[in-house]
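CO-FOLDING WORKSHEET

Operator: S.A.
Ligand of interest: flavin-adenine dinucleotide
Run index: 400
Mode: holo prediction, single chain
Checklist:
[x] sequence pasted
[x] SMILES validated
[ ] output reviewed
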Amino acid sequence: MTGSPADRLAVIGAGVSGCALVAQLRRLGWHGDLSVWETGRGPGGRASTRRSRSDGGRRLDHGAPLFNISSSPEPALLAPLLEGGWIEPWPGRLAQLDVDGALHPHPGDRLHGGRLFRGRGGMDQLCQGLLELAGGRVELRFGTLVRHLAVTPTGPWQLLDDGQQLLDEADWLVLSGTLLAHPRSQQLLGWEEPPLQPVARSLGDPQLTEAMASIAALGYEPRCVLLLLIDASRADHWRKLPFRLLEFQPAARQRWGLERLALQPLEDGRCAVVVHSTDAFASRHLSVYGAGSAIARLQPTQPSGEREQAVIAELTAALQQVLKHWISPCDLGDGPSKLMRWGAAFAQPPGLPAELMLCPQSRIGFCGDGLEGPGFGRVEGALLSGERLANRLVSTLRAH
Ligand SMILES: Cc1cc2nc3c(=O)[nH]c(=O)nc-3n(C[C@H](O)[C@H](O)[C@H](O)COP(=O)(O)OP(=O)(O)OC[C@H]3O[C@@H](n4cnc5c(N)ncnc54)[C@H](O)[C@@H]3O)c2cc1C
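OUTPUT RECEIVED:
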């Protein structure tokens, strides 16, 4: 494929879908230049791991704690990820909690049915592995928000930062996250309109116009996530709990405002505890970002610490109530409690139809868990969307 009309492709977003796209493009033998732009400090997106520069052993999977594969055929990238040791079968017990606080075996559902996996040594290893499968021939730019886009019908796509400085030029562009195309960026960041909108208008490509409308129709559910690190002297109780992942049944969710509890024992004896709120709880606290959330860094003013502490206290109290059957007193120690607010945790249908994922006239493609089809709204869908777009791109470029 060297020397094809598309010599350079820029991908915005290094979540599962963007990383799967570059891995699959290379597996299919596409040799053009690839750049990946990501506002986060590393790859992973909603399947990332919070690590500490000063404390090497500390890690918390603060988005997806695991992922399931239930489609057939399974994603083509699954086997190489397993063979490379980047992911491993989920090792712990799954349980459900009823409204009276009793445990039940997990029957398996949308997020927990089929084969279960996790990143080996942290969920971010899934994306790290995908980038590795791409063979290291990808220009990776972390910590950079692409804020503006520009293009002419025959010229290259231009990626620009907040100060309108040119970051990159590419023949083809892929958005693997919807921030630049979805109206939520207006409420979230106070942008006048989604940055792709004026560009799409100027291009006048009916397929792109339809894709933009379909992306705008995507719904998103938020989640608040409480992150705790239990020191080694107290962690024994937590390690002995009869589950690694606990899901709350509907009535239990309503009672406690919690949806899932994930235990992540660390090699040094500590135990990370990650508590996911319900959609309803997070929707009530939409304006509380959590100082460590990616979105907080993009806000013109720093979020209120007081309101954040109140949300942390509410989630902590609910957790202590739930666990009193097993750990009493439920002493969390002096470790820091952090809040992560995911404004767009789970995509809601209708998804982007597959025929709109690539708009050849405008030289733009879309991937991500919002693409309709198997695995919609989950890691599996994100993986498959990257693969599907890569397949489509390569055959389109070959046809050129
Ligand atoms: C709390 C939580 C729990 C979850 N649990 C599960 C689970 O158990 N199982 C499961 O399968 N799924 C789960 N999910 C969903 C799963 O994480 C997602 O479906 C999947 O990770 C989506 O991947 P993606 O590549 O489509 O999008 P993302 O991960 O959102 O990737 C998009 C990336 O693009 C970047 N980006 C966007 N715009 C820009 C820009 N302008 N400039 C630079 N970078 C940009 C973003 O920072 C992001 O990293 C969970 C999600 C959350 C939040």
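REVIEW:
The chain is about 30% helix and 25% strand.
Residues 56 and 268 are 10 Å apart (CA to CA).
[x] output reviewed
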